[in-house]
Amino acid sequence: xxxxxxxxxxxxxxxxxxxxxxxxxxxxxxxxxxxxxxxxxxxxxxxxxxxxxxxxxxxxxxxxxxxxxxxxxxxxxxxxxxxxxxxxxxxxxxxxxxxxxxxxxxxxxxxxxxxxxxxxxxxxxxxxxxxxxxxxxxxxxxxxxxxxxxxxxxxxxxxxxxxxxxxxxxxxxxxxxxxxxxxxxxxxxxxxxxxxxxxxxxxxxxxxxx
Length: 210
Hints:
Elements: E1 5-7, E2 27-29, H1 44-60, E3 64-67, H2 70-76, H3 94-103, E4 108-109, E5 112-114, E6 117-119, H4 126-131, H5 143-150, H6 176-182, E7 191-193, E8 205-206
Parallel strand pairs: 1-2, 2-3, 3-4, 6-7
Antiparallel strand pairs: 5-6, 7-8
């Protein structure tokens, strides 16, 4: 694989449109399509329309993968039994957002893996694996399959203590400092690509403990 295009948290922004013409390269969206930042001047209406364009883009191009983020599953998606409201929750467009996720559920995944590269919204940590009692069940080869197979059937994706919840953050909620200290599969060649946390300059990937 020579190139992979990674689109981090969109939150209503249109920067992703620069790559709409690319057809022969994997394009991975890392989740969080709605709930724009107020300081950027993007309305919730524009964010919804932008999300619709992303959905159509994924429908028309088999090289596009859409991942769930914490602003997707617990805010506007009824795959679980309750809603955990993320920041900047859009009450006025929640029904429309629910419908978009529900009608296009086949497009979305919790994780995606290409060779030794694992893509999730926030990352998989050793602490979360331990909390979910998954030692000996998941490994660097099957983790993406496991998350996609069982994500809708349990409360696997709650926030941790660093993000207003309990315990350790899930692959939708893990804080960056959790990944720095407890990135899973650190003794393998697996590389984790994540979004979720804004950085001032460039992004990062984690494959080893610091």
